[in-house]
From TrEMBL:
Residues 131-259 form the NlpC/P60 domain. The keyword Hydrolase applies. Pfam families: NLPC_P60 (PF00877), SH3_16 (PF18348). This is NlpC/P60 family protein. The lineage of its organism: Bacteria, Pseudomonadati, Bacteroidota, Sphingobacteriia, Sphingobacteriales. It comes from Pedobacter ureilyticus. Keywords: Hydrolase, Protease, Thiol protease. It comes from the Bacteria. InterPro entries: NLP_P60_dom (IPR000064), Papain-like_cys_pep_sf (IPR038765), Peptidase_C40 (IPR051202), SH3_16 (IPR041382). Belongs to the peptidase C40 family.
Amino acid sequence: MDQYHVCRIAVAPLRSEPSDRSEIVSQLLFGDRVLVLEKAEKWCFVRTHHDNYKGWMDHKQLQQITALQYNDEQSYKYVTAINFDNRLVTDNGEIYYLSPGSTLPFYQDGYCYLGDNRFEVKTEPFVPNPLEFTTKVEATAKFFLNSPYLWGGRTFFGIDCSGFVQTVYKLLGKQLRRDASQQVEEGELVDFLASAKLGDLAFFDNEEGKIIHVGMMLSNDKIIHSAGKVRIDPIDNQGIYNMELDRYSHRLRVIKRFV
């Protein structure tokens, strides 16, 4: 089976079942690599390269590449910048608009490449630098303010809580897993809310103790997170307090430090 592929459209849904009616569990952005594990008519079951996430997608949204192209890590360093006008233009003049943090495979001299297809990159891409995390994380997170909440979303047109923190970290050269329940398994424990600092992640649970939400600390009493939309709310030892609802919306479980 031809298993090495890359997403060739701006954003593609990754679904729990091989059906257009099925729940979207995540999204692929342009340039995301996947391994095809199984194929059925128009659907294929894939595992993402960047976070080992599995789901079903329409194989027409993928471009086949060679094993050599798939495994060439140095060729996937460049990503689209934090702005609203990341454009690619094909050789026949078609335009693609990409979300921030989309990967530009084999970027060189103003062009990126998917298999034999060439795209002119109209906006300046960059290589995320983990050394700039502390100085840039607040502005990076605030770029997404008011983006609508979307289950499985990873773009500024719709993003879920774990997709939001994963994307912010990616734009700063840090890798996180996809879901809040996976993210909470990593990082170092921050013992007290008072010790929390900018960039730490706070995790929240439900009555059964299952992690159901994540947000990023802006300070030890403010959090930015995707709930209804990407918003900034006060946080204390009980959890997130939503001023509009005049009540606590999320119950704090644990704070983790990844940087």
